Amino acid sequence: MNRQLFLAINGDTTATLTIDDTDKPNKVVDIHLQGRDITGTDLRSIRIHELLQQAMPEMKVTKPEGRAKLTEDFLREVADIYNTAIDNGLKPVVEVSKAYAISTRTASYWIKHCKKKNLVKKFYPHKGDRGR
Fold it and tell me: What is the pTM (predicted TM-score) of this model?
């Protein structure tokens, strides 16, 4: 059986969680956001673990600890996006940023690690253009 829980995210945005409670542990099968136009920044600000804890206090919901690890495989994925952007005449930092819905600052940080491992091509932007 499914049950729905309504939660306020901020003043004008709400979330509806649809939970399948036929089996244990319960599963969230749908999250629906409603309110003003919802932006990527709004989505990134939602603390899903907190919403789930409010919605299902009987369940133990744990928050992931720390940052994601920059594994070799992950850095290769980032490097592929970066290198493809260069091949297509696009701005590589912007393309990595878009691909992962992250800030250009975070994308630059990841790319720095790719460069340390020689995974990316050399990029020579036009004067005044830093690849952003």
Answer: 0.47
